[in-house]
TrEMBL record:
Its cofactor is heme. This is Cytochrome P450 sterol C22-desaturase. Belongs to the cytochrome P450 family. One of its GO terms (molecular function) is heme binding. It comes from the Eukaryota. PANTHER family: C-22 STEROL DESATURASE ERG5 (PTHR24286:SF228), CYTOCHROME P450 26 (PTHR24286). Heme binds at residue 450. Keywords: Heme, Iron, Metal-binding, Monooxygenase, Oxidoreductase.
Length: 509
């Protein structure tokens, strides 16, 4: 290079005006360099954590797979699950390891020393940070031991009577509404309201007036909206989380009052007729050795956690139950045959726990319907320390580890013809389904396994069985009926449009 030419170039006098400009340029270059370095660092950290796991080689800067998580689809989830038994993804720099196989999903659920449930960000705002659901380890085990006493056979036999009465009340209303307007209607909201009414009455009995149940039911939709995986993180007025907090406050007013009333009722010698009564009675039992000092607020928080954990999943299960029965008339016919037989054709007889025990086909149907369309497809956990998931992969501390259930529940080895709805697979004690109970992850596994399994399956069985003898229903199939909408849990995209008519009584009744 001719040095003379070069030196003459640098000798050119610098005009004074660009001084400011050059300062700004320096600032811009520095900022750009810094941002560039951060972006490179982001990619490097992602790739370092991901190691050899399947998943995008690069993460979208800053937001990662945020767009996908805003509008989750079964297709995207399935692509991720099928990409490997363990795979990686990043959303807003949260590093996530998805487990799709039975082995790895169960490992996450059953290793409390390395991972604990990580509810969506909004949950702490809505449920309140001192709610029992955020407990872990020994404290959690002890609290759950107390709560298990609310789901004994004795307790369930109180609840089933309440559920039966509420269900029949709602069906009368469904039929009255259908008589006024016989066009098919989505059952998204009607089924939710039935569940909410039944649950509030099972948990709180008549300690809450009708207006309170209606208020809790109506406001509850705001809570569901705030349960989405991704929500605006701050509770500013107008946001979903803010609305959910207002809904919780309204519900709490009623639930605390119900706890106080249950204490008074049992102290005055009344027999338990709801969960809160049962709880107070258990605490007073001289043989009960656990903690006794539960405040009204604490009891309200537990009931609220049950509503929170149950409402969506149970509604999803029930709606798919109705859809599956209308799309499989041969299965519905078998359920009806069993109902008339066990009830001796008396359709007004309230169902009891003993009667349910004599309805194996109904129970098999509920189990199978939940398998084919599991309401909860995955549960987010967080690695509390480096978590050696496999021989050659350790999830870094702080990363999200998400066990997913769909592949376990649709494993063709365990469930031949896995997409077909076949209740019979549960009736054969030697079937691969019964031989592999570890695959049935509908309610999770390990220390945080769903506490409401018996209550939820009893409710679904009762509602569908009672519907089958009191009503006929036709499914208005649309292009969206078989498509899945994910609103925290799974729903048919068109809301399952049904047309109800009263069913004639059986001949000998
Ligand atoms: C079809 C209905 C339901 C389904 C599919 C379902 C599913 C689940 C699943 C997958 C989990 C997480 C389990 C884990 O992490 O291993 C869970 C937890 C839980 N469920 Fe359910 N659930 C249902 C109904 C209910 C009902 C009716 C109640 C209350 C009465 C309830 C209360 C809870 C609670 C409190 C937890 C957290 C337990 C803990 O952390 O110890 N669920 N449920």
């Amino acid at each position: 290079m001719p040095t003379s030419h070069f030196s003459s170039f640098v000798d050119i006098p610098v005009p004074s005006l660009p001084f400011l400009f050059s300062q700004r340029a320096t600032w811009l270059y520095t900022t750009a360099a810094l941002v560039g370095a951060l972006l490179v660092l982001e990619q490097s950290i992602y790739r370092y954590k991901k190691k050899h796991l399947p998943g995008a080689a690069w993460t979208i800067p800053i937001i990662g797979k945020f767009a996908d998580s805003m509008k989750p689809t079964m297709e995207n989830y399935m692509a991720q699950w099928n990409s490997g038994e363990l795979s990686a993804v990043s959303v807003f720099n949260i590093f996530i390891v998805m487990a799709s196989s039975n082995h790895y999903s169960r490992k996450i659920l059953n290793t409390p020393t390395h991972a604990e449930p990580c509810l969506v960000n909004s949950a702490k705002h809505i449920l309140m940070p001192d709610n029992w659901v955020f407990l872990t380890g020994k404290e959690h085990i002890e609290y759950r031991r107390i709560l298990n006493t609310l789901f004994t056979k004795k307790a369930l036999s109180i609840y089933i009577g309440v559920q039966d009465a509420i269900t029949r009340k709602h069906f009368r209303q469904w039929l009255a509404d259908a008589a006024k307007d016989p066009s098919p209607k989505p059952i998204m909201m009607t089924a939710r309201n039935l569940n909410m009414d039944a649950s509030v009455r099972v948990f709180c009995g008549n300690h809450i007036p009708e207006s309170g149940v209606v208020e809790i039911s109506e406001k509850y939709w705001d809570i569901t909206q705030a349960l989405q995986l991704v929500n605006f993180p701050f509770a500013f007025p107008g946001t979903n989380v803010y609305k959910a907090i207002q809904a919780r406050k309204a519900a709490f007013k009623w639930l605390e009052m119900a706890a106080a009333k249950a204490k008074i009722a049992i102290a005055s010698g009344a027999q338990p007729h709801c969960m809160l009564d049962e709880w107070v009675q258990v605490l007073q039992d001289p043989t009960y050795k656990g903690r006794k000092d539960f405040s009204d607020r604490e009891m309200a928080m537990v009931v609220f956690s049950f509503l929170f954990a149950s409402q969506d999943a149970m509604s999803s299960g029930l709606i798919y139950g109705f859809q599956h029965l209308s799309d499989h008339p041969e299965i519905l016919a078998k359920i009806r045959e069993e109902q008339y037989r066990v009830r001796g054709n008396d359709i007004n007889k309230p169902i009891t726990l003993e009667m349910l025990e004599s309805m194996p086909y109904l129970k098999a149907f509920v189990k199978e319907s939940l398998r084919v369309k599991p309401p909860v497809t995955m549960v987010p956990y967080r690695a509390t320390k480096p978590f050696p998931l496999s021989d050659n992969y350790t999830a870094p501390a702080g990363s999200m580890v998400i066990p997913s259930f769909y592949n376990s529940l649709h494993d063709p080895e365990v469930f031949p013809d896995h997409d077909s709805l076949t209740p019979e697979r549960w009736l054969d004690p030697n079937s691969p389904a019964n031989a592999n109970p570890k695959n049935y992850l509908v309610f999770g596994s390990g220390p945080h396994r769903c506490i409401g399994i018996e209550y939820a399956t009893m409710n679904m069985a009762l509602v569908l069985a009672t519907a089958s003898i009191l009503m006929d229903w036709e499914h208005h199939q649309t292009a969206e009926s078989d498509k899945v909408e994910i609103i925290a849990t799974l729903f048919p995209k068109d809301g399952c449009q049904l047309k109800f008519t009263p069913r004639p009584r059986p001949q000998s009744a």
